[in-house]
Design a protein that fits this description.
CATH architecture of the domain at 79-184: Up-down Bundle
Distance between the termini: 70 Å
Shape: flat
Structural class: mainly alpha
CATH topology of the domain at 79-184: Receptor-associated Protein
Helix content: over 70%
Number of helices: 9
Strand content: under 5%
Number of strands: 2
Radius of gyration: 29 Å
Amino acid sequence: MIAAICAALAMWCGIPARPRHRTRVRQGRRVSRLHPEHLAWAICPLLGLVVAGLLGAVVGAIAAPLAARWIARLEPAARRRERLRVAEQLPLAVELLVAAMDAGVPLRRALESVAAAVSDPLRGQLIAVTRRLAVAGEDTAVWAEHLQGPLAPLARSLIRAERHGVPAGSVLQDSARELRRERYAERRDAARRVAVRTAAPLGACFLPAFFLVGIVPMLAGALSSISWW
């Protein structure tokens, strides 16, 4: 058993650090951040050892890479909040971009103006895009880098306008309407989910009160009127 624990710890300590494994400097020392997926390499064998002994430790060691990969694919809470915040800001930003382009402002200048008008986190992403557009030779290549990110609706619209040779303002205007409809549908679905999720807690609160206020007095009155002799 001790040998299995030592083997699991040795396996965990031997994991090479990922490139995204960041370090911080605190009081003159380098402090390494431990990623949650690394813990799977130690927890899975130890859990298997506790549950099923040495065979469980072997099974846990085999399952550790799968658990680590599954944990690594989970979206961090901070990134999810940033993605949702950008999705909230994007419809207004696209509408501002359309208004600026309708006034005759070029796309890059319009992006800079919109980036200055909105708040973070969308501001930082738009500023990064404008800097890339300033040094890139082709705008389509820059927007293609954002086809999988929070700016994907904006990137798809501008790439479509560039490829088909249509005015970007009209394509962006359609994209803004679609984004508004999507946000409205998401909020409506979220409101419906809240109603469903609150049904059980409200029932758990009101049913005991109804039983104590309505049913118990009635039963007590009925039992008191019964003659037991």
